[in-house]
Amino acid sequence: xxxxxxxxxxxxxxxxxxxxxxxxxxxxxxxxxxxxxxxxxxxxxxxxxxxxxxxxxxxxxxxxxxxxxxxxxxxxxxxxxxxxxxxxxxxxxxxxxxxxxxxxxxxxxxxxxxxxxxxxxxxxxxxxxxxxxxxxxxxxxxxxxxxxxxxxxxxxxxxxxxxxxxxxxxxxxxxxxxxxxxxxxxxxxxxxxxxxxxxxxxxxxxxxxxxxxxxxxxxxxxxxxxxxxxxxxxxxxxxxxxxxxxxxxxxxxxxxxxxxxxxxxxxxxxxxxxxxxxxxxxxxxxxxxxxxxxxxxxxxxxxxxxxxxxxxxxxxxxxxxxxxxxxxxxxxxxxxxxxxxxxxxxxxxxxxxxxxxxxxxxxxxxxxxxxxxxxxxxxxxxxxxxxxxxxxxxxxxxxxxxxxxxxxxxxxxxxxxxxxxxxxxxxxxxxxxxxxxxxxxxxxxxxxxxxxxxxxxxxxxxxxxxxxxxxxxxxxxxxxxxxxxxxxxxxxxxxxxxxxxxxxxxxxxxxxxxxxxxxxxxxxxxxxxxxxxxxxxxxxxxxxxxxxxxxxxxxxxxxxxxxxxxxxxxxxxxxxxxxxxxxxxxxxxxxxxxxxxxxxxxxxxxxxxxxxxxxxxxxxxxxxxxxxxxxxxxxxxxxxxxxxxxxxxxxxxxxxxxxxxxxxxxxxxxxxxx
Length: 674
Ligand code: FEO
Ligand code: CA
Ligand code: CA
Ligand code: CA
Fold this sequence. Notes:
With 674 residues, the chain is mostly beta strands. It is 9% helix and 27% strand.
């Protein structure tokens, strides 16, 4: 049997060990959720997200069907109304969508997309080399790039669908699950597992009948895996703590691991997040350096890749235990080349992925960019999904100019971490040794315990970024209930983040509630949102409130003493995770909870951000997580990913479950959700 067989709902306490023992709770009392009614912000409607995406919205979906709703609401409310009938909870092993909609599986694990296009074999006998040319497993974050985006177009019928493959189900991947021979893993099993991780780039096109398919032989089709060579960029590049046998000068590494969510950049590239990368490494020495301790690296790894029979360098590197040699003769520093946001240019198939270290090193769930403005810095947000970890923001040093923008903008700038104050205000705390306040806190902390770590200072800014969590502890950030995806409202600029749950909040030995995370424990999660001061994403202050508390029937969210949402059969949900604003401004919420009643299978709901109207739109098959959603610019096709289905889905006559994308369309060809 596979070791570390993982509960998909993170119920296994070993999956995400609590490694933040910094005690950073800024409030001593349990406070009622504090909410604040904010004035409706009138932004430049539509322009915002269009600029994030790098294409115009002139020809995008407008809600023709709902323009005359006559409810007296503002235009923003009209464009974000939910025009479908909510679907009930479901425990069936199929996808459920509203009346008038159709769902169809697409690009299941094992679909050949490149090279020799090796056919998927349902008995598990595909080789590692086959898997390197096929769609990976455990689909997660995903984005659709219009094929003509670089030329300023906004095609909704042809594009590059880029998706993450977070982890694997070894039992489905191999004929007999993971095997061991004399304590070693067969090398081709390891090769296949590494190839089933990473990212797929798939050129897809809709035919005249509206059917989507892969463009066979397209030069854009590509697999990036946990073995693909990559460059390290930004302040941590070349730092001595990244020197390895593979990259003696600390400028390169191989692979990206545990890619959860993602973010498209304003210049048409894809940033993939490295989330629970720490699980893939083993360190059996008595003591570990702080850059491993603060992430919970154990003495054995999730899939034992370091135990490959052939002892190839690309496999044994997952063992961090120092041998007698020096840092350039072993892999003691290998884990320091993971934990980053990784930039992939899907339009340049031979480009090397770039690890952007200025965005920090932690358990990156994903990233979301604020609308890019000509001549202003680029701003993006990223959550660290572990219990009691933080939310971060990066502001570039150099300004954005559409004509010249590129990944270099992500190599210089300031990384901030969020502090949510009790009064509904918030502060962005810079993690920068050149900042006087931060430098003073660092000086004060030296020689003291920070959580479990005796803090002996930072060597330089590269050291700060390598140890982002520790730096954030010292800065005084607010420990959150597992920050997952973020989203920026294209109509107002407000930033939303899901806080999926926190089983340890308030338990003995752990932080209690704070205003932004007020439940002890937080079993079902909530969604927080904020507005940057002056609606300027580079601001160092913000105002926050809670958009909705997830939970069962009757769960209330109050604003100024008034109940603004009460969940009922149409919208009960738990453990919000995926979050995305479509190009019209509807908010899509995806869940990663247990399949237990009353919620049953995981689901996706749509929300109107102005009215807080929420309706269940989609329910996935048994045992899955619904994660990853995107549409082309016209919002008439929706791609939704199904991760780790439990039973034989999508094909009931195949013996193995297959992660897959689902294409949702409206039977009358209209805008999804309208
Ligand atoms: Fe991979 Fe935090 O979900
Ligand atoms: Ca998951
Ligand atoms: Ca997630
Ligand atoms: Ca999750």
